[in-house]
Amino acid sequence: MRTQQSIWSTLALMLLLMSVPRATTGLPYDPVVGAVTPNGISIFIHTTAAASVALQVWPPVGPVITTSAVQTFAAEDFSARFALTNLEPETIYRYRVLVDGVLVGPERTFETAPPAGSTRPIRFAVFADANENGKYAVYGAALADAPDVLVQLGDWPHWNPSTQTPVTIANWQLMNRTALTHGFYGPHIPAALALRSVPLVHMWDDHDYCTNNANKTCAYKALARQAFDQSFPSYPRPNPTAGLWQAFRYAQCEFFLLDLRSQKDKPTVTDGPTHSMLDGNDIPNDQLTWFLNGLQASTAPCKVILSSLSWNPTVEKNEAWRVFTYERTLIEDWIAGHNITGVFVLSGDIHSSGGCDDGTNSGLPECTVPATNISLNSSPNCTGGYCGDWNLGFDTPAPRSGYALVDIELAGRVVVTMKSYTGTVRRLMTLWP
Fold first, then answer.
1. pLDDT tens across 48-95, in order?
2. Three-state DSSP class for 161?
3. What angle do CA 88, 246, 244 make, to 5 degrees?
4. Which of 11, 158, 393, 414 is deepest in the core (most CB within 10 A)?
5. What is the C-alpha separation between 295 and 313, in angstroms, rounded?
6. Rounded Cα distance, 330 and 332, in Å
7. Cα dist. 12→17, 33, 202 in Å?
8. Does a cis peptide bond (omega within 30 degrees of 0) precede residue 89?
């Protein structure tokens, strides 16, 4: 039974919200939430023109808190970024958006991460290689599975912004806005609601970074990074001007989100100690050192490598990890030599229907996630050629569009379900134990 105090708190909240003027315009698309922790979250909001933006945020029980206002400008793509702190773990908060003092859009929610060091059943949905035409309502199907986190592994979408004339930051800004609009998600309307509530983790790949097979030599990567930061939340980045790599902990899992473009050497360079996917520019505070040290230092029983490119060397993609054999072997030897356990890879890029390998062929346990919503024929090949050897299962239905649903169970078992664009199960694979 609700207490008298909680009833009065609810009435006070309703009166406060009713007292604020309402409007139906001002946001081109829904807020994007991400960088979730037990005590914080980031919320990104875009306006249709220059405006003052604030949030009203409130917990299940307690007063409404109104944030300080943030001014949006054309030079920043009308972006307002809010980093909420001092929140309670594993708690559902509600929030509203104020644009120039007027309430815009519906009430929304987000949930903070579990307490640090806790163990929970975790579920995350993983996508890769999306198309802006929204042909298949994949995101809507995934939302029905109630994931804790959404992971987008690059090519969101396939615009190649550095090849469009003229080359300005507006190319990347328009691409990102297109990916975040409701129309991107196809006819399944609830799909558009996913980014309102479920934290997003996103890393670019070649087609949304610069162009096909792009690497460290892209002349426009500073523009790409600037536009990315205007649209997508990130966890703290170790070297924010050099690339997007970052790590984060969610309950018993630590995730290593790799940037395989900003510091990548040309794949045609002879492989060896100076040929790098992660540190082609040989910079201080580099990604490779950060990655190795992070794996060794992690106390999480589950460690997930989020790699936009295939780790499996049998995949016939001659710009993926197969042609960076020295560095791939170095990482695998580091993991083995330091007795680092619980490591597995999630990858994309090859436009497959999804498949998994227990490490027999891939070196590390790995699952390649399906192409999100692209229409592909029944050719046995993937992007680049042969799809590779995957001993836990792989097939090529038409269309291949779909997603991977990853469940981390309390006992440590990892179950990966490859799902079609309608949410039906294609394959269910257990990585371990």
1. 999 999 999 999 999 999 999 999 999 999 999 999 999 999 999 999
2. helix
3. 125
4. 414
5. 21
6. 6
7. 9, 27, 38
8. no
Cα distances (angstroms) measured from residue 199 to each of 26, 193, 316, 418, 423: 22, 12, 33, 21, 20
For residue 193, give every residue at least 6 positions away whose Cβ sits within 8 Å of its Cβ, in sequence order, or none: 30, 143
Polymer length in residues for the chain: 433
Task: Answer whether 0.85 is exceeded by the pTM.
Answer: yes
78 contacts 46 by C-beta, under 8 angstroms = yes
255: left (phi over 0), alpha (psi -120 to 50) or beta: beta
Q: Are strands 253-257 and 302-307 parallel, antiparallel or unpaired?
A: parallel
237: number of Cβ within 10 Å: 18
CA torsion through residues 345, 350, 356, 357, sign: negative
Q: State the residue for tokens 């009430």.
A: 107
Residues 6+ apart with CB under 8 A from 7: none
Q: Within 10 A of 382 (CB to CB), how many other CB atoms are there?
A: 25
Would you tell me the crossing angle of helices 325-337 and 287-297 to the nearest 10 degrees?
A: 20
pLDDT tens digit string along 109-121? 999 999 988 999 9
Peptide bond into 433 cis (omega under 30): yes
- 226: its two tokens: 């600037």
Spatial separation of the C-alpha atoms in residues 105 and 99, rounded to whole Å: 10
Residue 153 tokens read as 């592994």
Residue showing tokens 């018993």: 252
